[in-house]
Structures are given as structure tokens and as C-alpha cells.
Write a structure and sequence with these properties.
The complex is a heterodimer of chains A (308) and B (273). By secondary structure, chain A is α/β, with parallel strands linked by helices. Helix content of chain A is 38%, strand content 20%. Chain A starts with a helix and ends with a helix. Helices cover 12% and strands 38% of the residues of chain B. Chain B is built from 3 helices and 15 strands.
């Protein structure tokens, strides 16, 4: 009997310490709609100190399976997201959906590689990862350090989305849509029709200055189409979970201003360097990370708009 | 040219792989002496501060599109002439970004283009003068952060634009048409694949495909020639000053690594605009 009790005690100790470890690792998430969990990333550049955890990541639980939407900016963040999932459900993770190929959204992929998990991405995503993957891992090794980058691997999707794909999680169907070049040339959205919840990836930014890595004119068109999606709320790629489609307003204003300013500078014959320093300057007080990204957006916009 | 460029690129890749630990600072391994040997055959470098200027942003905002401006600084009355300018981005996979030949009668004094910057790097401009000497100046550029990469943003559009050419003339403030001073820009639609990226799935290299030569004339008089490499941004774009010889036509011819030849000519606006 005494023997039995001590074994039980030992098991309890083991159990609680494992639990404690799991809790310590868990990425904080909140349930924004029934069985839809989101971690809102820090509005910051990816650094060693923040684990690269700057993008919004989340997961949706169906009756039979789980879908993960973006995996974070490091394998460590991916592992913490996995711990958050496992603390809430033991259903298999059937899909990992990458909304696009930027480091803060895909560097955690390696944490989710397992039999039975299918990686889902835009039809252009494999090419984007092939062309940029090595550069990203080299660049972020310098910024975030060896330890955080060690396990990072570019895991290309095997389920490619070209148009619309339905993913069944059991009594819950997700609509995954690929978009023409906008924020990047490989943007996807995920819509949960049951709750009207839209994961927009970096097609939508709030608070964090929108970052242009695709086509400014394309993005403005996509914003108009996005606005017609039947959603109640949006999980943007960066910034707080917000009401839909009101969440689009700030970003539309900024991108429109950027296009207008750059177009005027080009018409006046001003060089690209002037655009980098002046375009959309009036938007500066309204955004975080403006100084980190606006010159870059203007440079990119200029090289696009001068071909009009 | 292409062979030489790729040799330099692969040699550097090997060097980088072997010698530079990821955390090492670029200064710890200065490639410049080796580049002077490879690109300039170890010819002596003279201080170029009085001869040539180079302007780049301190930080590469977008790794794929970093503006660079080269300005000749020979004072009036100096009877030497700038024959060519070589632009070298030391830490790029293919450091020799471009070589410009300045037309003997065109008096080109300013050249702006856009380059890719892969890393924290010194960027050198080396002018060869009619005195037979090389003059060097340099600047330093910090690599971009975030999701910027020295690669295309819109693969589809880049393909669709292949071979399109545009020409534009600009007003030169304070210089009337009578001075003959002109400023113009040539744009060429081209995806400019560097060929250095490996497809992570197939483990095969994506083939290089870029503009390696661009020649510009006013009537039949050469204005400027650029030998380019993979460090030149997608859709090569060059803006420059020159002096009109009264020509009525401006002509451009570009060649890429797959042997395409793109040619176009435009009427020159006599007003100088």
C-alpha cells in the first residue's frame, strides 16, 4: 500500500513537472471565436529578444482535426504554439497553412513537421521560398543569432492553392483563397464561415505600418475585393483582432496616399531617392514602425509605378 | 564576361562558406584586396576623392532596389577624361555589379542605377582616367532587415515586362537647352534572376538570366555602355546626364544571358526636356 502511494506520488510529481514545463513554453493565445485561438504578435522587428514572435499566429479546432495558421518567426515560437495547441486539444494537426512566405510567418514550420500534417500555401509559395529562403536564414542568423535559427528550415507546401480550396476539419470547413500579387506574390486568406472569422495574413495590417513586397496597385485592388468577404472579424497579419471590414480603412488610406505621392513625384521627374524620403510622410504619426518600413515601401512603389 | 563573373561569384561563395562564420563582421574578412586582384588585375588604386563620388543610402531599405549615384568630379580645366567607372559591391555573391564606359564625346558626369545588396558591405567605385590610372572611392551600406530580399517581388509581372524599353528626358534646373546639358533615363523590363539561389525542394540551382550589356547612342555617337551582372536590380534602370551633340534620335540596345537582343530608338525632344 505504502509502495503504491509512493508510486502514485512519484507519478504526480512527474506529471505536474511536465505540466509546468508545458505551461512555461506555451505561447499565450486567446479564443477570439469558438475554437479559434490567436496569439497577437508584438509590433516590432524580429529580434533575438522577442524570438521573432512579431506576426499573428493561430489555430482552428474542428471535430476531427486542427488547422494551424502561420507558425511564427522561429522554431522556438512554433514549438510554443504547438504547446498551446496541445494544452487545448489532442486532435491531430492536419493542416499547417502559411499565409505567405515571410520569415515571421514561416520560420516556425519545422516545429509542425509530422506524418499526417499537410503544409498548405499559395501556388507561388514554393518558388518564393526557393528564391528567398537561403537569404532569409542567413540574414536572420545575423540578427537573431545562431541558436534561434538553427532548426529553421524552409518547408514548402505540398497542397497548393490556386483560387479557392476547402479544408474540412470535421463539422467545420475552412475556405482558403489565393490572391493576385498584393502584399507579396503569394498571399492566402483563410475564412471560417461558421464564425465569420477571417485570417488575412499580411493582406491586412493594423497599427503596424503595412509592408509592401508585391504590388501596390495590386494590393489596392485586392483590398476592395477583400472587403466583400462575409466576415465579422479579422485576424490581421500584424495588429489587433478587429471588426470587419472597418479594419481595412487605415491601410487603404495609407496605401492610397503612398501611390498618390509617388505618382506625383515621378511625374515631376524626381528621382527614386527623393521618393524614399518624402512619399506618404503625412502618415507618419498614425503608424508604428513607420521609419523602419516607409522608405522601403516608397522605393518599391516607385519602381512599380514608373512602369505605368 | 559571363564566365568570369560566375567564376568570381562561385569563388566568393566558397570563400564565404569556408571563412566567414555567420556571426563574423564583414570587416573581419575584407574581400577588397582579392577583388582588386580579380577585377583590376592588381593595378594600383589612387585616392579617388577628387575624381569620383558615390552616393548610396546608409541602409539598404529594400535589398532588391538600392539606389546608387556616381558623379564625376574632375574640375573644369582638367584635361583628363573619365573613360570608365566600375561599381563593386564587395560582399555580394557577384561583387562586380557594373562597368560603365563613358562615350568620348558625351560628357557623362552623373549615372544613377539600382542594385541588390545582400549584406553589410563596402561599395567601391573605381574610375579609370585618360591618364591610365585608377581612382577609387567607397561607401558603406547596411543590409536591409525584415522580409526584404534581393529577389523579385512579382514574378508574373517581371515575365510580362521582358524586353519592354522606356526612355525619358528630364529638365535640368538652371540649365537651358542652349547649354546642351541633358538628363535622361532608360528602363528595360527584365526579371534578372541571379542564378545563385537553390531550389530547396529539387536542390537544383535556378538558372541565371539577366541583362549583361546595355549600349546607348545619340544618333551614332556612343553615350554610355553598361556591362551588368546579377547585382543590378530587376528591370535595369539607368538615369544619366550627357551633353547633346544635336542628335535627333536616341538609341538603346540591350542583351541578356540568353542571347536576346532588345533594341529601340526614340526622338529626342530638342527643348532638352
Amino acid at each position: 500500500m505504502a509502495h503504491g502511494v509512493s508510486v502514485l506520488a512519484l507519478l504526480m510529481v512527474l506529471g505536474t513537472s511536465t505540466l509546468a514545463r508545458a505551461q512555461e513554453q506555451e505561447l499565450p493565445v486567446s479564443e477570439v471565436a469558438p475554437k479559434i485561438f490567436v496569439h497577437v504578435g508584438e509590433i516590432a522587428l524580429m529580434t533575438r529578444e522577442n524570438d521573432g514572435a512579431t506576426a499573428n499566429v493561430g489555430f482552428i479546432v474542428g471535430d476531427n482535426a486542427v488547422a494551424v495558421i502561420d507558425t511564427g518567426g522561429s522554431v522556438h515560437e512554433g514549438e510554443r504554439l504547438l504547446a498551446a495547441i496541445r494544452a487545448r486539444t489532442d486532435k491531430p494537426i492536419r493542416y499547417v497553412i502559411n499565409t505567405h512566405g515571410h520569415p515571421d510567418h514561416v520560420f516556425g514550420n519545422a516545429a509542425f513537421v509530422s506524418r499526417g500534417t499537410v503544409f498548405v500555401g499559395h501556388r507561388n509559395l514554393p518558388q518564393a521560398l526557393a528564391v528567398r529562403g537561403q537569404f532569409y536564414t542567413d540574414a536572420f542568423r545575423r540578427i537573431m543569432g545562431e541558436q534561434l535559427l538553427d532548426g529553421v528550415r524552409m518547408i514548402a507546401p505540398t497542397l497548393l492553392v490556386d483560387g479557392t480550396t476547402k479544408l474540412d476539419l470535421g463539422s467545420r470547413t475552412l475556405t482558403v483563397t489565393s490572391w493576385p500579387t498584393a502584399h507579396s506574390d503569394n498571399d492566402l486568406t483563410v475564412l471560417d464561415g461558421q464564425t465569420g472569422t477571417l485570417f488575412a495574413g499580411d493582406l491586412v495590417f493594423l497599427s503596424h505600418l503595412p509592408v509592401l513586397d508585391g504590388s501596390l496597385r495590386g494590393w489596392l485592388k485586392v483590398i476592395d475585393e477583400l472587403g466583400t468577404l462575409p466576415a465579422q472579424r479579422v485576424i490581421p497579419g500584424h495588429g489587433p483582432v478587429s471588426e470587419w471590414p472597418a479594419a481595412l480603412a487605415d491601410q487603404r488610406r495609407y496605401l492610397t496616399k503612398l501611390a498618390t505621392d509617388v505618382r506625383a513625384l515621378i511625374a515631376r521627374g524626381e528621382p527614386i531617392t527623393v521618393a524614399a524620403g518624402t512619399a506618404a510622410a503625412s502618415e507618419r504619426p498614425r503608424w508604428q514602425l513607420f521609419d523602419d518600413y516607409n522608405a522601403r515601401n516608397a522605393t518599391s512603389a516607385y519602381s512599380e509605378i514608373e512602369w505605368e | 564576361m559571363r564566365f568570369r563573373l560566375l567564376c568570381i561569384a562561385s569563388a566568393l561563395c566558397l570563400m564565404l562558406g569556408v571563412q566567414i562564420a555567420p556571426a563574423a563582421t564583414p570587416e573581419a574578412n575584407d574581400p577588397w584586396p582579392g577583388l582588386v586582384q580579380d577585377i583590376f588585375n592588381n593595378r594600383p588604386m589612387n585616392d579617388g576623392a577628387e575624381v569620383i563620388g558615390i552616393e548610396m543610402p546608409y541602409r539598404a531599405e529594400d535589398a532588391a532596389i538600392v539606389p546608387v549615384t556616381l558623379r564625376t568630379r574632375l574640375p573644369a580645366g582638367d584635361d583628363r577624361r573619365v573613360l570608365r567607372i566600375t561599381l563593386v559591391i564587395d560582399q555580394n555573391p557577384a561583387p562586380m555589379a557594373a562597368k560603365f564606359e563613358l562615350g568620348p564625346d558625351a560628357n557623362v558626369t552623373e549615372i544613377s542605377t539600382r542594385v541588390r545588396v545582400n549584406n553589410y558591405t563596402d561599395v567601391h567605385a573605381v574610375a579609370e582616367l585618360s591618364d591610365g590610372k585608377l581612382y577609387m572611392t567607397k561607401t558603406y551600406v547596411k543590409a536591409s532587415g525584415g522580409c526584404s530580399a534581393p529577389a523579385g517581388k512579382n514574378a508574373e509581372e517581371a515575365r510580362n515586362r521582358l524586353g519592354q524599353m522606356r526612355y525619358r528626358q528630364f529638365a535640368r534646373p538652371g540649365q537651358g537647352p542652349a547649354s546642351g546639358a541633358r538628363e535622361a533615363q532608360i528602363m528595360i523590363g527584365h526579371p534578372s534572376h541571379s542564378g545563385l539561389q537553390m531550389d530547396q525542394v529539387t536542390q537544383l540551382y535556378i538558372p541565371a538570366f539577366f541583362v549583361n550589356e546595355l549600349r546607348l547612342w545619340q544618333d551614332d555617337s556612343p553615350v554610355l555602355t553598361m556591362e551588368g551582372g546579377i547585382s543590378i536590380s530587376e528591370d535595369p534602370n539607368i538615369r544619366f546626364t550627357y551633353v547633346s551633340n544635336g542628335a535627333k534620335r536616341f538609341r538603346a540596345e540591350a542583351r541578356d544571358t540568353e542571347g536576346h537582343v532588345f533594341q529601340k530608338e526614340w526622338d529626342v525632344d530638342a527643348s532638352g526636356m
